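Exercise 7b. C-alpha cells:
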C-alpha cells in the first residue's frame, strides 16, 4: 500500500513536549529567591494530582522537575557590601532622564514590573561594577545611565 493512503495518527502532528528551559550560567539566588524556590518545590510536591488528566499531570511533573533542579543548583549569594553595584543590590539610576529603582536578583526571582531584574539582563550587566555618581554605557549610548544610589536589598523584600 502506498504511503499516501496510510492514516497517520493524531499524535504524529502534536507539538513535542520539552523540559522547561534552564537559564544558562550560574543559578545565583538571594535569600528571598532561595525561600521562593523552596516554597515552590514544597507546594508542587504537596499538590494533589488525583482528578487531573494525563496532560495536566505531565505538565505538573515537568514543572516540579524544573523547580527541583533550580533548588539543587541554587547558589545563595551573600548580601553585597559597600556601594559598588553587585548581585543583590538595590540601585537607583537615571535612564533617559527618568529615575528608576531596580533590584538585581536571580533569574527565577526576576519580575521587571516589580523592579526586580535578573543579573543576566542587559540593564543589570550594564550597571554591575558601577559606583554612585558614575555614568555607564547602555544600548550603544555613552553614559546613558547614571547610578544615583546603591544599597543592599533589605531583608524580607
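Sequence design result:
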Amino acid at each position: 500500500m502506498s504511503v499516501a493512503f496510510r492514516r497517520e495518527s493524531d499524535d504524529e502532528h502534536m507539538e513535542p513536549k520539552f523540559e522547561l528551559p534552564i537559564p544558562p550560567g550560574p543559578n545565583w539566588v538571594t535569600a528571598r529567591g532561595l525561600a521562593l524556590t523552596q516554597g515552590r518545590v514544597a507546594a508542587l510536591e504537596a499538590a494533589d494530582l488525583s482528578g487531573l488528566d494525563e496532560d495536566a499531570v505531565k505538565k505538573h511533573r515537568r514543572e516540579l522537575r524544573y523547580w527541583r533542579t533550580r533548588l539543587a543548583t541554587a547558589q545563595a549569594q551573600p548580601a553585597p557590601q559597600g556601594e559598588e553595584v553587585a548581585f543583590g543590590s538595590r540601585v537607583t539610576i537615571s535612564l533617559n532622564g527618568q529615575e528608576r529603582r531596580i533590584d538585581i536578583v536571580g533569574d527565577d526571582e526576576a519580575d521587571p514590573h516589580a523592579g526586580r531584574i535578573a543579573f543576566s539582563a542587559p540593564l543589570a550587566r550594564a550597571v554591575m561594577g558601577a559606583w554612585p555618581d558614575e555614568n555607564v554605557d547602555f544600548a550603544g549610548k555613552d553614559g546613558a545611565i547614571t547610578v544615583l544610589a546603591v544599597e543592599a536589598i533589605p531583608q524580607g523584600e
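Instructor comment: The two ends are 67 Å apart (CA to CA). The chain has two domains: 17-76, 89-152.
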